[in-house]
Amino acid sequence: MAGTHERINKDELVKLFHVLAQPTRQKIIKALREAGPGSLYIDEIAQKIKEDRRNVSFHLATLAEYGLVDGDYKVIEQPVAKSKAKGKAAKFYHLTDKFGEAVSSLVEELTRF
Fold this sequence. Notes:
alpha+beta, Arc Repressor Mutant, subunit A, 3-stranded antiparallel beta sheet, 5 helices, 17% strand, disordered N terminus
């Protein structure tokens, strides 16, 4: 989440506030923040926040649509030699720099009241 602070325009900030205000998304963000510099895949997030995997998937897609989370595929099970088992990959999610910028911009706007 490090990076230069970029000013987010007010219209986008209102949309981001709406996206971030949703309780399940807040739980997802908290789980990702607690993961530190590492990242979590959907099953880990669902387990940590005690939510259904499909519900977590929906909210992760929304967070990704707004650029607040991103993910990379990583192998979680290696293929078994001389077997038909092909292994397994999962998308590991992390917070983006835009998340940090959005939070900073929201705090800045809220302190203007």
